[in-house]
């Protein structure tokens, strides 16, 4: 490239660091009218910038000085962040671009970025070292497993038998997976060696697997139980053929009885910050099912992108699904010189929902309100913007225009229209409404919001947040849906105790919600966020605003282990969820690296009883599971 950008740390204080940015013109040409755009993960103090001016929208910084940048010359500038000291290369420049104006117009020219110079020596990355695999390597650890004599030979002639409607979806999933192993298509027939047998005496989600030399029997009473049983059988299949001439895989003969510890076991995937294609989403869902998760939380809207087709408002995907240097939404994070985006059509969403259901997974859509709504607001300003609103605020992601206005009639038309189409698309009983990170000072100088507060007798703007969330909850209830929300959904004290609260800032907030009468799903960033770095080296991908989350730390997460919750309070934990936020996850390789193998550790935390979990034993079983990930070519952290 003709241009290069270097970032160096030049001064470090506990809560503020100063940086030097050097832009090199390596070309043979002078540039006259130009702006430098670059992305950073923190807020730049405007008054701290030397040698020019800087404006920031989200992660995008736009710097200009008015002076030319001559050939083989450089520009030096400094700025400060009010943040703890950086410890990782991923906290440097995400991408950079020069916007150069000539007589022919404006061109977006990519700029090479180098690793941030942190000025400190980095520890070496710790490799994943594991013991030899066990003979049987099931994850999560089942409740009871007995190894018996003999083996079952899985050959090309095998067939799957389903004896009830409850087992039909799981039987089809099993047949599809077996077809990928064998040289012939496996189908669901009336006779075969692998039987899915309904046993109404088993509790919901419980299952039994019996592998004998003559065949395999999976017993359960409901669809969830059959899905779990199929997942176990799939894990019993070795990665290599045992008898190549007969294309046979030999499974050990076992008797397994099993059931989950928590009823809700989930992963959230952020597809708004970076768009993930349908194939990537479906592959992840298949892995979630294999490790006995039963929900997939799909984060579909945010400031940086609207990813779901809404027929009533085509602008949401025509405008809000795309960002770039010449788009309504400015570029963010990566790809500053070109367009980035995408969205899921309704047909694609129905396909994903059906694919997940076949594997025993309920898809939960998230439409994040009232904050994190910039993509929607920029798409529908005629409906969602009050011209007289002079409120001045800045969100944690550095936006000043990303919150819905509860005082506008258009806001409720927008919400009800969008949620009605969402409810039609997703047959599951839950819709997640977000509710997180509404900034201070929003709505304070909005005439319509102040009028609403006066009419309702509200004294705190947080009550406006509760007002709009209660409206969403009431509307969703008319569609037969239960509302989920992040822990800030309780702000303003307006939503009912029927709303399930997802605790993410810390476990303490989960305890407070429980003691205020809410059921909770635990998703503490300190243990379950897969975008957190897995190691302490500066080279390790990820972030660390919550903390570093190595594999062992994720595995040892135990809800409320260090608190005084009572047994009755503990019962209000509906489950555990992990999450991958994708500000810096934009490729298949990085996607896999951040998820695996920590996903398997959290799967066991969600499923297996506390007294059954053993770190040394898990490592041996993980060693066996990595052979399967190798077979698929998954780029897990090694």
Automatic annotation (TrEMBL):
InterPro entries: Beta_hexosaminidase_sua/sub (IPR025705), GH (IPR017853), Glyco_hydro_20_cat (IPR015883), Hex-like_dom2 (IPR029018), HEX_bac_N (IPR015882). The keyword Transferase does not apply. It holds the Pfam family Glyco_hydro_20. Residues 262-609 form the Glycoside hydrolase family 20 catalytic domain. Its EC number is 3.2.1.52. It comes from the Bacteria. It catalyses: Hydrolysis of terminal non-reducing N-acetyl-D-hexosamine residues in N-acetyl-beta-D-hexosaminides. It is an enzyme of class 3 (hydrolase). Keywords: Glycosidase, Hydrolase. Residues 136-259 form the Beta-hexosaminidase bacterial type N-terminal domain. The keyword Hydrolase applies. Belongs to the glycosyl hydrolase 20 family. This is beta-N-acetylhexosaminidase.
């Amino acid at each position: 490239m003709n241009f290069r950008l270097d970032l160096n740390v030049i001064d470090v204080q506990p809560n503020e660091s100063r940086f030097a940015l050097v832009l090199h013109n390596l070309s043979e040409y002078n540039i006259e009218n130009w702006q430098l755009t670059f992305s950073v993960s923190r807020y730049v103090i405007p008054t701290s910038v030397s040698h020019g001016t800087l404006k920031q929208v989200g992660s995008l910084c736009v710097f200009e000085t008015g002076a030319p940048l001559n050939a083989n010359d450089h520009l030096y500038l400094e700025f400060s962040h009010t943040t703890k000291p950086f410890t990782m290369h991923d906290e440097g420049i995400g991408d950079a671009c020069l916007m150069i104006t000539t007589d022919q117009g404006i061109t977006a020219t990519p700029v090479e970025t180098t690793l941030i110079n942190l000025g400190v020596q980095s520890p070496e990355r710790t490799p994943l070292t594991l013991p030899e695999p066990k003979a049987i390597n099931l994850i999560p650890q089942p409740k009871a497993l007995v190894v018996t004599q003999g083996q079952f030979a899985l050959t090309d002639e095998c067939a799957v038998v389903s004896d009830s409607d409850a087992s039909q979806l799981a039987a089809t999933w099993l047949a599809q997976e077996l077809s990928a192993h064998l040289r012939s298509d496996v189908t669901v027939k009336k006779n075969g060696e692998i039987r899915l047998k309904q046993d109404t005496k088993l509790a919901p989600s419980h299952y039994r697997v019996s592998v004998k030399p003559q065949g395999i029997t999976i017993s359960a009473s409901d669809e969830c139980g059959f899905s779990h049983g199929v997942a176990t059988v799939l894990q019993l299949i070795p990665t290599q053929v045992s008898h190549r001439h007969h294309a046979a895989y030999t499974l050990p003969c076992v008797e397994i009885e099993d059931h989950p510890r928590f009823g809700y076991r989930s992963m959230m995937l952020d597809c708004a910050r970076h768009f993930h294609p349908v194939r990537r989403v479906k592959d992840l869902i298949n892995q979630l099912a294999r490790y006995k998760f039963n929900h997939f939380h799909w984060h579909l809207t945010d400031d940086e992108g609207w990813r779901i087709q809404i027929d009533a408002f085509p602008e949401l995907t025509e405008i809000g699904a795309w960002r770039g240097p010449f788009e309504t939404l400015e570029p963010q994070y990566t790809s500053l010189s070109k367009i980035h985006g995408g969205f899921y059509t309704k047909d694609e969403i129905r396909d994903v929902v059906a694919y997940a259901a076949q594997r025993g997974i309920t898809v939960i859509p998230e439409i994040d309100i009232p904050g994190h709504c910039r993509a929607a607001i920029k798409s529908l300003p005629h409906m969602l913007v009050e011209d007289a609103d002079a409120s001045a605020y800045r969100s944690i992601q550095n936006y000043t225009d990303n919150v819905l206005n509860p005082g506008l009639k258009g806001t409720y038309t927008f919400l009800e229209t969008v949620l009605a189409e969402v409810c039609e698309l997703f047959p599951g009983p839950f819709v997640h409404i977000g509710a997180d990170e509404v900034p201070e000072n929003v709505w304070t100088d909005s005439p319509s919001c102040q009028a609403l507060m006066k009419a309702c007798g509200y004294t705190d703007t947080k009550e406006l947040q509760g007002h709009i969330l209660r409206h969403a909850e009431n509307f969703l209830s008319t569609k037969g849906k239960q509302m989920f929300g992040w822990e800030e959904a309780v702000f303003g004290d307006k939503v009912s105790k029927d709303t399930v609260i997802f605790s993410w800032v810390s476990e303490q907030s989960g305890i407070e919600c429980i003691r205020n009468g809410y059921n909770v799903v635990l998703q503490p960033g300190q243990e379950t966020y897969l975008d957190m770095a897995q190691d302490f080296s500066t080279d390790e991908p990820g972030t660390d605003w919550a903390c570093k989350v190595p594999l062992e730390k994720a595995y040892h997460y135990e809800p409320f282990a260090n608190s005084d919750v009572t047994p009755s309070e503990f019962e209000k934990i509906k489950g555990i969820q992990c999450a991958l936020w994708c500000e810096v996850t934009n490729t298949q390789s990085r996607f896999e690296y951040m998820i695996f193998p920590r996903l398997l550790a959290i799967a066991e935390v969600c499923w297996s009883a506390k007294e059954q979990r053993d770190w040394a034993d898990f490592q041996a079983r993980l060693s066996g599971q990595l052979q399967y990930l190798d077979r698929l070519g998954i780029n897990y952290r090694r």
